[in-house]
Amino acid sequence: MTEIVHDDYEVSSEGAVRHWEIPYASLEDATPTATNPALVLGTDGLQVGGTILTVDANTSVAVIDFTCSMVYKHNVRTVTTYALAIESAWATIDIGDVVYYDNSATMPAGTYLSLAAQNNLGEANSIWGYIVPASDADMALYPKAAGAAGNTWSQAVMQRGAGA
Known about the structure:
It is built from 1 helix and 11 strands; from the N terminus they run ββββββββββαβ. The protein has 164 residues and is mainly β. It folds into 2 domains: 47 residues; 85 residues, no CATH class. A 5-stranded mixed beta barrel has the order 5-9-8-10-11. Strands 1-4-3-2 form a 4-stranded antiparallel β-sheet, with no helix packed on it. The N and C termini lie far apart (40 Å). 30% of the residues are buried.
């Protein structure tokens, strides 16, 4: 039997890529920006998240990469708990740490991810991903300091995505 090699397929090194159009109104942040993390509205603590690839202001739709295990760099806040709606405790960031999508009003501008399992109102934050080193040089910098009043680090984060 003769082997036939078909050329009508695509192969990706990261497995099945999941890019979906989502209306702004269905996102936790209704004013999305390309390259930021996103979270689809749903049951607190159980929402699906991904990275915004593009936004279309004309149609109010964002294309989001929900691919499980895809790695992107995002700002991550070292806050772990809130008291009286303000940050009250911080931890160092280390490889493998769980990262949450944190919609707290106290988060610095452009920061949507933290180490806090609950937001500043005591509501569950959804698991968004996990800390991974960006390179061999970055690997040597762990753990990264919490800071006396918290720090925000640009981190490689392996997103949980869809299908996790």
